[in-house]
Amino acid sequence: MKGFFITGTDTEVGKTCITAGLTFAFTQAGLRVAPIKPLAAGQEFVDGQWVNEDVQRLHAAQNIGMTADQVGPLQFRAACAPHIAAALEGRSIERAPLLAAIHASAALGELALVEGVGGFRVPLCEGWDTADLAVDLGLPVVLIVGLRLGCINHALLTAEAVRARGLRLVGWVANTVDAEMPHLTDNLTALGASLDAPCWGHVPRLESPTPAAVAAHLNLNHALLHSRAALSL
């Protein structure tokens, strides 16, 4: 599999918006991109079917003919930790079938963007969490940093955890969660000096965070450099 594993400093930091933006940017650069959200918790009943907003966002961002189920192979109704959501439905998260589904979806494109769930370490089933998932996939990691109070600590701890698993942190994206965050520039400077990875962009608080709007704030030089390196491995 060629591509990136997209993780975040926490839940609700904009992983899906950034993944959709990267999908758009890489697609505009001529790559066939397969965005994948292996686990998605939280569905609404719309037009006679259960849908997950994040899966729908990623599905709309791709142009290689993926179905919503190929983008989001395992979806649950309740908006909570996936292992809890699975238990509420009497279902289980099984390692081998989920990995097989991810590989099958990734094979539809030439560059896969696999988005994690929550932060870097979220339980999935006994003895297996999202950090283990990232290791199983072996993809280089892109960290989405939600800019709000506490983000430096969250980002550095996540970067440390990523590297402790033997994974490569190839870049990070700053996403403005709190538009009124004080000392935002100073926080960005501290993150840039401490994360030891290139910044792929700083996305401000957008009124309409479409994939194109997000992509406009991404540094394509860094992103494309690493994507081509990933494809050549």
User: Biggest sheet: strands, sense, closure?
Assistant: 6 strands, parallel
Overall body shape? globular
Look up the CATH topology. Rossmann fold
Low-pLDDT windows of residues: none
The portion of residues assigned to helices is: 40-55%
CA-based gyration radius: 17 Å
**CATH homology-level superfamily:** P-loop containing nucleotide triphosphate hydrolases
Subunit arrangement of the protein:
single chain
Question: What's the mean pLDDT score?
Answer: 95
CATH class: Alpha Beta
In total, how many beta strands?
Answer: 12
SSE class: alpha/beta
User: Which strand-content bin applies to the residues?
Assistant: 15-25%
Strand order of the largest sheet: 2-7-1-10-11-12
- Number of domains in the coordinates? 1
CATH architecture annotation name: 3-Layer(aba) Sandwich
Enumerate how many helices there are, as a single number: 10
Following the backbone from N to C, one meets helices and strands in this order, namely EHEEEEHHEHHEEEHEHEHEHH
Distance between the termini: 10 Å
Which key phrases capture this entry?
233 residues, alpha/beta, Rossmann fold, 6-stranded parallel beta sheet, two-stranded parallel sheet, 10 helices, 42% helix, P-loop_NTPase
List the helices and strands and how they pair.
Elements: E1 3-8, H1 15-28, E2 33-36, E3 39-41, E4 44-46, E5 49-51, H2 53-61, H3 68-71, E6 74-76, H4 82-88, H5 95-106, E7 111-115, E8 123-125, E9 128-129, H6 130-137, E10 141-147, H7 151-164, E11 169-176, H8 184-194, E12 199-203, H9 211-215, H10 220-232
Parallel strand pairs: 1-7, 1-10, 2-7, 3-6, 10-11, 11-12
Antiparallel strand pairs: 4-5, 8-9
